User: Fold these one by one.
Assistant:
Number 1:
Amino acid sequence: MRLTPQNAPILTALLERAGDDRSVVGLAKTHWGTQRPYVGKDAAPVCEPKRPDLTANPDYPSGHSAFGEHVAMILAEVTPSRAEALYARGREYAESRWICGSHTVSATEAGLQSGAVIYAAEHASEAFRRDLDMARAEVAAVIAAAAPKAP
């Protein structure tokens, strides 16, 4: 099965909102202002281009790690039968940030924690919980439609 904005519009909207974690991560980055590990006189190797926008964006906490954890938690709640694999993938995505050299280990761990905190805070919203319920039903319908039919 393939989830698309056409067959899973509510889930798509939830995941698009998950990418807007600047209010938590951005405030922490501004507060700490730590350089990324590939910047400065003791620069470490990095596996992605040293773009000026990334170089200017502080290391701690990792926004990509927060996003990966946040999305994994949403998807795991929407599709609990795949939760273990989804949590593992979210963590792998986060860990790729320090393995690549884009962030420190502590920035990655703080990003994971940030994603979990953001997700937990969202549960205080009745609208978020309603959207999760609708996304769960939406994904179940896509899974059912993709299942092989008995002869």
Number 2:
Amino acid sequence: MLAGFKTFILRGNVIELAVAVVVGTAFTALVNAIVASIINPAIGALLNAESLSTALVVKIPTVSGGTADLLFGAVLAAVLNFVIVAAVVYFALVAPMNYLNRRAEERRKAGLPAGEEAAPPTELELLAEIRDLLAKRDSTPPAP
């Protein structure tokens, strides 16, 4: 039973998931600090409030005669935080992985092994290409 637990813990997916959670938590704290310390106060200053979280407050009457606060600025701050996190995840993780996957797929279709680069053209191939381009250029009538 203990050996099975050891196998489970040392399985690659569990370790990778644990690292992802730790890095994700640290990343979230970083983004939250940037949004709360820089972006929210800057937008709040535009709206004449201490921060975005305290801006756009609507007071509504309650049944007991008091008031309740609708914090639209806090909701807007959460939406802004989400958009920033999503943008960073997309541009830092998703887009590069999509590029690498596309490149690997192109290499697979070309019949190249994953780690090898395509052989550079030989001198004869380059000279033939230059010859063909020059012939094409010379056979094209000049523009009036």
Number 3:
Amino acid sequence: MKNLKNALLLKQLYQLKQLGYKYTSVTPYKDEEQDLRLPDTLASLEKQAMECHLCELSKTRHKAVFGEGDPNAEIMFIGEAPGTMEDSAGKPFVGRSGELLTKMIENVLHIPRSDVYITNVVKCRPPNNETPTPTQAHTCQPYLMKQIALIRPKLIVTLGATAYHYLTGDDTEISKVRGTLHKQNDYTVIPTYHPSYLLRNPSAKKEVFDDLLKVKELMGK
């Protein structure tokens, strides 16, 4: 919530600067104000995220990509950011990476993709599919954490280093932590490689297969 408040404050200060102010005694937001609370339903949270303009990614996106799947899912997959096809469709993982993720879920976990919930660290596509900057990721983080709080998954599979880092704060290389279990709050995090990495490095599919077998075992699937 602090990140969201800081982003809103910074936005208003930039607006004041554009109006010609060099110094101001205006207090844009007070701690006791309650209008910074995020909605308590996924539908309302999605609506707010779709209309969000807190960072520069909102200027270049076509559609914000909030997430999709079972709102009561026991398993949640978190990627890095939307790509070109996701930005156009407004849905996560719809390209080749999405096809591979679907196969991973259905062929290894033996459940429909619709039974899990899928989202990303940031909800808007970074230009040229670049890795989200810390500012972009931290600005969007309140949305992700609220999604987790509302869905209440038992297990979260982070896809790639970026998702693992921003969810746990650990910057250990993904190759060294993939497949390990990390208890956090009321859920367990298990990091693995991003499907796009597997498209470039097919030999790593065996490792992801092993990671998903752990997920299957943990969930009793």
